[in-house]
Amino acid sequence: MSDARAPAGDDLRAILIIAYSLLVLATFNGLTAIAAVVLAYIKRDAARGTPWESHFRNIIQVFWIAVIVTLLALALALPVFGGLAYALITTDGHPPPAAIGSAVLLVPVFLVGGTIFFVWFVYRTLRGLIHAIEDKPF
Fold first, then answer.
1. Do the Cβ atoms of 136 and 51 come closer than 8 Å?
2. 81 CB contacts (<8 Å, ≥6 apart)?
3. 132 in helix, strand or coil?
4. Residue 59 and residue 33: Cα distance in Å, rounded?
5. What is the mean pLDDT of residues 1-11?
6. Is residue 74 helix, strand or coil?
7. What is the pTM for the complete model shown?
8. How many angstroms separate the CA atoms of 138 and 130, rounded?
9. Cβ atoms of 138 and 58 closer than 8 Å
10. Whether residue 1 has pLDDT greater than 50
11. Average pLDDT over residues 82-107
């Protein structure tokens, strides 16, 4: 890419760096990802046909995959841990072994799955940020 960039390209690049930074912050608070995806949706039409289009697509994909993974994790965890909590309350602290076993089995699944998802999220976010800083498409 040449050094003479259009001002609109610089604006898109700056917005991308801000959006990727918000995604990086989302690893700590989760909520800034919403601001990142809103920025991506607002500016993606302006990026059509430019090298920045793939970055906006990446931000949107990363956000929605994170939402789906979070909802699946909640759908798996709430019944198991909620059932264990209910069993603890109703049995005076002596739940049936099945309630304990299902919760114990779910912990390693969450650790492995969470680690894989975290590495994927950080990789896609940092790769996009680095490419945006280096003036490259995703």
1. yes
2. 103, 106
3. helix
4. 9
5. 56
6. helix
7. 0.81
8. 9
9. yes
10. no
11. 85
